[in-house]
What does this fold into?
Amino acid sequence: MEGLDFIRACSAIGAGIAMIAGVGPGIGQGFAAGKGAEAVGRQPEAQSDIVRTMLLGAAVAETTGIYGLIVALILLFANPFLG
Amino acid sequence: MIGDMNIIEFVFQFLSQFDPVDLIKGFSAIGIGIAMIAGVGPGIGQGFAAGKGAEAVGRNPAKMNDITMIMLLGAAVAETSGIFALVIAMILLFANPFIAAAATGSVWVLAASAVACGISMVAGIGPGAGQGYAAGKGAEAVGIKPENKGSVLRIMLLGQAVAQTTGIYALIISLILMYANPFLQAGGKDFVMAFSVLGAGIAMLAGIGPGLGQGFAAGKGAEAVGKNPTKTNDISMIMLLGAAVAETSGIFSLVVALILLFANPLIGLSGSVWILSASALASGIAMIAGIGPGTGQGFAAGKGTEMVGIRPEVKSVVLRVMLLGQAVAQTTGIYALIVALVLMYANPFL
It folds into this structure.
């Protein structure tokens, strides 16, 4: 096996492992969705405020998932180790 | 057995065919991926904060600005562990110190250090989730009693700062491995050094526990102060005392990691290099047990904090039972420390 192929193989593994980061936002945003649904059920007249707060908080929670995706994409398409 | 080699020897022979720089690059890629797992923490924690924020806004839409401010401030603190991990990943990608050292250092130590840097950062799951919980409880408290916003914010940030500590320890170990690696100049026994480095990184995972538990305590502190701001001193005291006990597992792991790095008892010993290496690795793996006591003791700290906020007059009896229970919870962490110390200082296999 060539050295570059070894690096490619390890980069594939690293890219896959990085996506495990998605577990977090998945759980957190799901919790937020549930609490949002509950809140809207209790106070339907506050729906727009509730949804706005929920989406704002969920957007913040998304960030670490994006970081993981960016790192995976770098390893796949702009890999500095293969230059 | 493969031919006359065992599996481990086969793997090392396979890896030995590669140019050292290629090996280091490959293992750096793996370490980079592992580091990003830290993002699980802030994801969970900030999502919790979002949910509690939505709930609070539902109850008190007029106070949406105050609620959102606390939610976002707390969520920003929770982001820290994710940022640390991203920074380490970016350093390993674009300014990799191990590739630079390939000419002079052992390839096994450098490759193992790259992976260990990534593993260590996964400790950030704890603080990320814990601080997010605190943010959510802060948002909830401000929604109920917006006039106590200042007190709630202060104790939330205080508790979150305590929860951040094990994430800082993990970052320090990563930075040591990258910029002050004690094994680069040393000669011989480089397999033992490589596995010691891995053990040190794995030991830092214990920091997940205190991060979670102390974050929970911070959230309960914010909740208690929101309800009863005149009792902030009592509430703070119990929260910090309980959180200090929860820190123990993080300290134990940091000590084991530092021993493996700077006062390694296994490197100088004679004996099978595989037993020495495995023992170094296992010392680190054992310390993962600290996740349990860290989380549980933090839960106890949080419930103690909650009770003192409700009934400050029973403070001393609450404190006594909390500490007693936390001491019991520490036992499995002690067992793990003992096993790690036995492997390092009284190894029965050597």
About this structure: Chain A touches chain B through 60 residues (CB under 8 Å). DSSP finds three helices and no strands in chain A. Helices of chain A lie at 3-18, 23-42, 47-77. The mean pLDDT of chain A is 96.
